[in-house]
Amino acid sequence: MNEKFLEVLQHEGPVTIVTVNAHPASVVSTWMSYVTVQDGKLLIPAAGMHSIEGDLPTDDQLVVTFGSKAVIGTVGPGAGFYVYGTGAFIDQGPDFDAKQAEFPWVTRVLVVTIDKIEQKI
Q: Checking CA distances to 62, which of 75, 83, 85, 111 falls within 20 to 30 Å?
């Protein structure tokens, strides 16, 4: 996993999740402090995200964006990343239980299996 990407995750900021092939694309946001990186996956707590969930049965491809002005990027202050992967929602199991213990409002967890991480800035 890219060290610069992991450094960005240490700072609070918005995370945007996009279903790239949906027509129209669905877009939702969450906070960086909610996201866990584990075994090549992102675990993202969900209480809403119904538009994303509705798109996944026909195409599970997602792009998730992360960025922080506090981290030096490719041309100065500010580093940003696109994470490409596939998504699925879970509502049971150890990953769900861990997220629900941390965030009692969680009804599901979006699991993004990472295919590629690309630094954009």
A: 75
Distance between CA 73 and CA 90 in Å, rounded? 34
User: Which 3 state secondary structure label does DSSP give 117?
Assistant: strand
Domains with residue ranges and CATH for the chain: 3-119 (2.30.110.10)
Cα separations (Å) of 51 from 48, 54, 57? 8, 5, 11
pTM above 0.90, yes or no: yes
Which pLDDT tens digit goes with each residue over 42-72?
999 999 999 999 999 999 999 999 999 999 9
